[in-house]
Amino acid sequence: MNVIIETERLLLRTFTMDDGELVYKLNLDPEVIRYTGDPIKDVEHAKQVLEQTILPQYALYNHGRWAVHTKPDLEFIGWCGLKTRPERNEVDLGYRFLKSSWGKGYATEAAFASLKYGFEKLGLEMITGRAMPQNIASIRVLEKCGMQYSREEIVDDHPAKTYEAFNPLIHK
């Protein structure tokens, strides 16, 4: 297990090609993907997403979406992390968790740790976070992490509330 971030209750690690089943099961619940617009069809499709979208980010940018596990049982509860979007000239904070882990503060804990990693370890100047306007829980996570509302816009054909966080080590 290649752990990138450890928090009080969580471990965030790089995904591997062996994680297709975990990604597929996470995306099976219609409530989990209600605001994401990107369903996973089957385990093979999940492996394709890992191979083409998630894993290359690690090599290209030294960050990405990381598998999130609870300590000490190492139960997989979702993913969180940073994604470079060159077409938008930004680094995006994202997260998705199993419904059984909602309401426990895991998303906020993992998102805050990912922001900290991006600023302290990677020296990023700014990180963007987005949620569909109806996704109040996700918006709340962004706000709890200290991200500031910037604008509403259409991103990937979906309406989005955009939030930004600036590196406090650079912007004092």
Q: Tell me the span between the first and last alpha carbons.
A: 36 Å
Beta content comes to 25-35%
- Share in helix: 25-40%
Let me know the largest β-sheet: 8 strands, mixed
Count of helix runs: 4
Listing every helix as H and every strand as E from the N terminus to the C terminus, the arrangement reads EEHHEEEHEHEE
Question: Mean pLDDT score, rounded?
Answer: 92
Tally of extended strands? Answer: 8
| Low-pLDDT residue spans | none
Sheet with most strands: strand arrangement: 1-2-3-4-5-6-8-7
**Roughly how many Å is the radius of gyration?**
15 Å
Determine the structural class based on helices, strands and strand pairing: alpha+beta
Shape: globular
Explain what the structure shows.
Helix content is about 30%, strand content about 35%. The protein is of the alpha+beta class and about 170 residues long. Strands 1-2-3-4-5-6-8-7 form an 8-stranded mixed beta sheet, with helices on both faces. The longest helix is centred in the first third of the chain and has 19 residues. It is globular.
